[in-house]
Structures are given as structure tokens and as C-alpha cells.
Write a structure and sequence with these properties.
- By secondary structure, this protein is an alpha+beta fold.
- It is built from nine helices and 16 strands.
- It folds into two domains: 162 residues, GAF domain (Beta-Lactamase); 230 residues, Phosphatase 2c, domain 1, CATH 3.60.40.
- A six-stranded antiparallel β-sheet has the order 3-2-1-6-5-4, with helices on both faces.
């Protein structure tokens, strides 16, 4: 036993010197095979959040030549070992009803003698390790089985810690990429605006996650001053990707001297071709020219237009969202934009902001707040809306991006 445990120590030292989990598993298998004298060794690891074991490595297989091997826990001897957290030591597997010959058929290897022990960390099974075909006789001795179980316990801990380390490195990599994507998205959203003389633009934007699916913009063009607010279905990196595409396309068209109200069908057809199933964009697009407002609403929630005398009108959708049916007719409406007029654009994250009890903020509450404070300057009105939303949703997780834009003409 003294010699065996010296060999065990050497094997574990070899394993711990491995650089990553893939190399570590390779060294675990070669060390186990050499330690106890077997024709082959293999490891199955439990798939995260499932009841399947996946072949993570084997000394007798060229992995690229063998299809992925998965075993349901409870199926085959390895599956039984994982289910009952107990070893199995057999001189001839063919005599055991638990033996599953599917692996041999896939690999072309003929298994005779078989020693399989569970791999556990903190009493929880993370996989199994097995030795196939003892080179010095038919069956592994009890002493060899005990030695193998000691090896498996230490190897299990090494694999587990290696996986945790790699998971942490992957998390750090993703966070770094996410920070880069956030910086890119922030640059897409304008910080300052250059409205026509006598007009002003004020915005408020708060994303629900690291990357938002809302977009807003306001910029001059040969066809007038363009106003835009949009919301892509879904959240996260995918939504941010589609929004960046929309922003670039709109600016590209404007730089070419094209009116987005006239080319919106081109945008629609483009996104209809590239969107995955279930993805679409709602958008309110307007152009202010010669003190008149021309607009189209692609399935977006109603906007609010305020007149100088304090009256308010809801500007409803007059077309389908972008990316659903590009050939469906889409209307363009127009109205006067007199001195003292104010246009309030927002995404559905405002009325659908939810309290900790599950109640929605609602359009009525939003409208009443605007009516009550309609004489405030734009910046103060935005601040009042922000404060109201924060008070209403206090203690609740933000479920959607919140975007607000106020465009007004001075008296």
C-alpha cells in the first residue's frame, strides 16, 4: 500500500499541474490508467441542470472520430453509479444486466473487466470515472478499488475547482465584452441636439438591463428636423444589435438626402428579411418642417401632442411595426406645430412601469401628471416624470427600458 500511495501522490501532483479542465481530464485519465493498470479509462460528467452524463474524455478514443456520448442517469452501469453514488467492480460486464452496450458499439472498444466509481464534491455526484479491462488479471482487487476511490475523490475536487475557475474567467470575459457593447450603445444615443431656432429637445432614458432595446434620436436633415423614438421587441444584446442597425440605416439615408418618411418601406423590407421570428420594431418617426409636423407611427404606443392653449391630443399608430408585413400600407399624417406646442414621445416602458405590487403606471396616470404640470419648462417636466416613475416603482425590478423625449416650440 505504501508504494501504491506514493504512486497516487505522483498521479494527483500530475493532475494538479494541468493548465485547464480539458488538459486536467486528459491527465486524470492517463494517471488513473497507469496507476491501476488498465487498458482504458474514461470520465463521464453530469451535464449542468440535467439528468444526463456526458463523456468528457477517454484514453481509447479519438474524440473527433466519435459522436458525442450521453447517458441518462440510471442507464447503464455508469448511470447506475451516478444515481446510487456507489462503486461497481466487475470481472465481466456482459454478465451484468445493467451493462449498456451502446457505448461499445459507438466506439468499437470491447469492455470486459470494469471498475466504475462516483465522482463527488460535497456529497453531490458530479460524474463517474471508470477503468476498463485490467491488464493484470480479470478483476480489480478491493485494495485497488479503495485506491481508485481515493484518486477519484481528489480528481473530482480538482475538476470542480478548475470548472469554477474557468467559469469565473468566462464571466469576466463576458462582462468585459458587455462593457464594450454598453460603451458602443451609449455612443449611438445622442448627448446633445441641434434643433431649429425656437425649438428644444429634452430626453430621459433608463435601460432595464446592461443593454437596452429602446432608441431615440433627433437631428437635422435636408427634409427637416427628424424626431425618432423606437422600441425593439425583447431586451439585451440582441435588441441592442437591431437598434444599432436601425440607427445606422436612418443616418445613412439622411446623409444621402433621403427622407425617412419616404424610405420607411425600404427599412421595413430590409429588417423583414433579416429579423429572426418574433422580432419587430415599433417606431414613431416625425419630421418638423416649416412649423408643421409630419409623422408616421409603426405600431408604436400613442404619442402626446400639446397645443398652446393646454389641450392634448393622442397621436395613434397608423401602421404596423417594422419587420412584420413590409408591403402593408403605411400612412403619414400632418398637423400644425404652433408656438407653445409640445410633443411628448415615449416608449411603452413608461406606462408599463410596474410597482412592487404588480400595478402598472398606466397612460392615465402619465397623462394626468403631464396635464397637471404642463406649464413647467421641458427639463422640469422630464424631471417630474422621472421622479414620479421612481416613486411608483420603488422596490420593484425595472422590467423594461424607459425612454422619454420632449420636443417643443417656444412661445
Amino acid at each position: 500500500m505504501e508504494i501504491a500511495y506514493e504512486a497516487l501522490t505522483r498521479s494527483i501532483r500530475t493532475v494538479l499541474e494541468a493548465g485547464g479542465s480539458v488538459e486536467m481530464i486528459r491527465k486524470i485519465l492517463s494517471s488513473a490508467q497507469e496507476l491501476l493498470g488498465a487498458e482504458a479509462a474514461s470520465v463521464f460528467l453530469l451535464e449542468p441542470n440535467s439528468q444526463y452524463l456526458v463523456l468528457a474524455g477517454s484514453t481509447n478514443l479519438i474524440e473527433e472520430n466519435v459522436p458525442p456520448i450521453r447517458l441518462k442517469v440510471g442507464v447503464g452501469i455508469a448511470g447506475w453509479v451516478a444515481e446510487y453514488n456507489a462503486p461497481v467492480n466487475l470481472a465481466d460486464v456482459s454478465s451484468d444486466p445493467r451493462f449498456f452496450g451502446g457505448v461499445d458499439r459507438k466506439t468499437g472498444f470491447q469492455t470486459r473487466g470494469y471498475l466504475c466509481v462516483p465522482m463527488t464534491v460535497g456529497g453531490k455526484v458530479i460524474g463517474t470515472i471508470q477503468l476498463l479491462n485490467r491488464t493484470r488479471g480479470n478483476i480489480f482487487s478491493e485494495e485497488e478499488q479503495s485506491l481508485f476511490q481515493c484518486f477519484a475523490a481528489l480528481a473530482s475536487l480538482a475538476i470542480y475547482k478548475s470548472q469554477l475557475h474557468e467559469a469565473q474567467l468566462e464571466k469576466e470575459r463576458l462582462l468585459s465584452e458587455l462593457a464594450l457593447a454598453e460603451t458602443f450603445q451609449e455612443r449611438l444615443l445622442p448627448e446633445t441636439f441641434t434643433p431649429p431656432d425656437g425649438y428644444s429637445v429634452t430626453t430621459y432614458h433608463k435601460i432595464a438591463r446592461h443593454l437596452g432595446g429602446d432608441y431615440y434620436d433627433a437631428f437635422p436633415s435636408p427634409h427637416g428636423f427628424i424626431l425618432l423614438i423606437a422600441d425593439v421587441s425583447g431586451k439585451g444584446p440582441g435588441a441592442a444589435l437591431w437598434m444599432s442597425g436601425l440607427a445606422n440605416l436612418l443616418h445613412y439615408q439622411a446623409e444621402r438626402g433621403e427622407s425617412p418618411l419616404e424610405t420607411i418601406s425600404v427599412i421595413d423590407r430590409h429588417f423583414n428579411k433579416v429579423f429572426p421570428m418574433g422580432i419587430f420594431i415599433t417606431m414613431f418617426l416625425a419630421i418638423v418642417k416649416d412649423h408643421r409636423l409630419y409623422y408616421t407611427s409603426a405600431g408604436h404606443n400613442p404619442m402626446l401632442l400639446g397645443t398652446p392653449d393646454g389641450a392634448w391630443e393622442w397621436l395613434n399608430s397608423n401602421g404596423l411595426p417594422i419587420g412584420i408585413m413590409p408591403d402593408h400600407p403605411r400612412g403619414v399624417a400632418e398637423c400644425a406645430f404652433e408656438p407653445g406646442s409640445r410633443l411628448i414621445l415615449f416608449t411603452d416602458g413608461v406606462p408599463e412601469a410596474t410597482s412592487k405590487t404588480g400595478t402598472m403606471y398606466g397612460e392615465k396616470r402619465f397623462f394626468n401628471l403631464i396635464q397637471k404640470n404642463h406649464q413647467m419648462p421641458d427639463s422640469e417636466l422630464c424631471g417630474e416624470i422621472e421622479k414620479s416613475l421612481q416613486q411608483f416603482t420603488r422596490g420593484a425590478e425595472q422590467s423594461d427600458d424607459i425612454t422619454l423625449m420632449v420636443f417643443s416650440r417656444k412661445q
